[in-house]
Amino acid sequence: MLRSFSLFVPASLVAAALLALFALAVPQLAAAQETRCEAPQVLLAVDKSSSMLGIIPGGMTKWDATTMAIGELAGAFADTVDMGLMVFPFPNECGPGSVTVPIADNTATAITDGLGTPPPSGGNYTPMAQSLDAAGADPALSDATRSNSLILITDGWQWCDPYEATTRFTPVEAVGRLADAGTTVYVVGFGGAVDALTLNRSAVRAGTEIPGCDVTLSDPAATGHCYQQANDLASLRAALAAIARSITEETCDGLDNDCDGDIDEGFDVDMDGVTSCAGDCDDSAAGTYPGAADECDGIDNDCDGTIDPACACTDGMSRDCGLEVGECALGTQTCESGRWSDCGGFTGPAEEVCDGADQDCNGLVDDGATCAGSLTCVDGICEDLSEPADGGAPPPETGDGGLGGVVPEEGGCGCRVSSPRNDSYGWLAALGVLGLVAVRRRRR
Question: What is the pTM of this model?
Answer without folding.
Answer: 0.56
